[in-house]
Each structure stands twice: as C-alpha cells, then as structure tokens.
# Entry
Amino acid sequence: MLELFLFVGLPYAATIVCIVGTVRRFKYDRYGITTLSSQFLEGKKMLWGSAPWHIGILTVFLGHFVAFLVPGVWQRLMAIPSLLTIAETLGMAASLICLVGLIVLIFRRATTARLQKTTKLADFIVALLLLGQIALGLMIAGGFRWGASWSTGTLAPYIWSLITLGPDISVIRDMPVIIQAHIVGAWLIVFIFPFTRLIHMITVPIHYLMRSPQKVVWTNPRRNASAVVARADQNSRRHFIKASLGLSAAGLLLSVGVLDKLGRFFQMPGLHHDEEADLLETRLRRLQLTAEEKQLELERLRSNEIYVSKLSDLNGSTGKYFIDYAMRPGLAFRSEDGWPMLLSAKCTHLGCTVGNQVDANGKILCPCHVSYFDVKTGLPNEGAPAKAPLDRIAWIVRDEQGAEIATESSRGSRTGRIDPQMAEYYSLYIVRSLSAEA
# Structure
C-alpha cells in the first residue's frame, strides 16, 4: 500500500497540485512570482553560487529529460562505450557543480542579514530538498554505475506508464531504497513547486519576443507626432496578427472536427470473430497466470515447508528455479559433497533474475548489468555493479517417510548428514522456520 502511494498516488497528486497551483498563482498572485531581487541585497557570494548552480542543474535536468523523452534513441547512444563514459562523466561533474553552487547559496542566505529578512521557511525546505536530491543522485551515480544506460530500461518505462495512465511499479518496487528515495524526492519537488520561489523558473518573458520594438528618445513635438503615427501603425499590425492567429486556430479546430467525422465514417468495422476470440483467449491466459501466482502466494502463507525437488534431480552445473517465501525467484544446486545449495536468484544490484548456468569458475551471471556471483558463497565478483551477496535460502531434506535428514539455515548453519548414495530417496524443501533464524 505504501509503495502504491509513493510511486502512483504521490506522482498524480503532485502533478495535479503543480498544474492547479501554478495556474491559480498566475491568475491571482501574478506579482508575487518573484525571487525578491536577492541580487540587489547581496551580489558577491551569489556570483559564486548562482552561476554554478544554474549551469549544473540545467545540464542534469536536460540529461534526465532527453533520456525519458526518447529512451530508445538514448539507449542506442549509450550502447556506445565512449558516449556512455562521456555522459556519466558530464553528469557527475554537473552534479558536483550543482552541489557546490547550492551549498554556497544556502550559506549566503543563512549568513546575510539583509537576505534573512526576505527569507521564508519554504526557502530552506526547498534548498534542503534540492540538496538531498543532488546528494542522492551522486550516491546513485557512484554506487550504481552506468545509470545513463540502465535507467532507460527501468525508470523510463515507469515514467511513461504514469503518462499513459497505466502505472507500472514492478520495476521500481525491486530497486534499492536509495533510488526509490531519489524518485520520491523528485515528486515532492513537483508537489511544492507552485508554492515556492521555484515557480520563477517558468516565468520566461516570452511576450517580449512578440511585443513591438521600443526605442527611448528625447521628446520633442515633431517626434511626438511621429510616435503617434508609428504607434497607430504598430497597433494595426498587432490587431491583424492577433486576428490571423484567431482565424487560424478556429480553422484548425474546425478541420479536426471534420476529419474526425470523416474518419468515423470511413472507419473499418470492428474486430472479426476470430480476432475477438484471440483477444479473449489472451486475457484468459493472463487471468490464469494471475490466479496461479495468487495460489503460490497462498500456499506460502499457509505452509511452513514448500517442496522444491528430488535431491537426485539437482546438480552443480545447472540450477533449478523455484519461488521462495517472498515470491521471489530462487536457485537450487547440488554441491560436490551431495549437499543442496539454495540461493536467491534476485540480483542485489537492481533486482534482475540471475542465470542458472554455472561457468568454469563456479559463478552464475546476472545478464542485466554483468555481475557474477559465486554459487557456494553468493558473493559478487570484484568490480561488479552488485555489491551485496545473494541471500541464502533455508532448506530441509526429508526421506520417503518424511523424516528429517538434514537442514541448513539462511545463515549457513547445518544439521544432520546426507548420504549421496541415497539422494534419489531424499526430497528438498524450503522452510520458513529456519529462515526466521537470520
């Protein structure tokens, strides 16, 4: 429930509040949208804070915006190692510049008496929130390398699912807490945007580009008469442009309406019976898969032990997939001494499912971002994106009569003895009670 609120409810609430609040403020508090001319109150420290901050944040924002706007193009570009390195380096440098500039601006506002008189609590809240976002971004860039590449397959689909009103948080749910916090922080900034000085960033004076040119001259009767004539001509041209734009907009709307009617008139008939049957069959399969998943979840809620496999069916080269008590994939192997080895198949980097084929070095591969894990210890290889080992899964081995033969807790402590010659008579189960010992 909390995940749905943070990654679905909060984004939509923040977007609605941002749009409504911005429109309302432009309508009823237009002259309150200002930075209160802080440059007039203090300029030396601002020079060293404002310029780095704006340069850095614009670079970071542009990188994020392009990656989410055209994820396919961005992913193809990031597949080139040199461009990926440049993007990562540029993003890290821009974030550091942001951090330095924002710290200077916070210090300036906290230590300058003249600025403190125009400073509100919301200003410090925004500054601290932005500071936290930049710090989280730097930690993610350092701890989860090559984000410019993997974000297009994880965060971009999440953003587009929100835009298309089909929210999908399956990828976000399994991400590390630090990335989830970075996402929540971004939505909080959107939420408070219309109520803070941040709103001044959209007050770009575009109307200056469309107004008539202005020229300041010394006044005299002859120039005044010429100015009146010129002003009348300019007003005439302005009215003509406005009328032309209005007629163009009306014509466009009329064309859209006519084309819509024509499209509906020439629209092809609905689905054929076979196509409708195929669509219904697809929906039925999805419902069946959902029902099977819920059945597995119910079984794990009610049972202390879940059957995995016959011990004789396991080997040390190809792992057997199963579903653990947390409804996550697991892998079962059999070591050289005949004992089972059960590990979580959930990569500790970004939650991808690791492969079940063991290479010559006794390691299994996470194909998403190339991390190798030792099947005996679960530890990742040095320099891998994943830093934490795969979790051990507690198990119990029983014979044909159901008697307990051997166990292993999620901490690795073992009891009992396994006779390799009797493997075909042994059954392997995952067990909840031994997992609780961890």
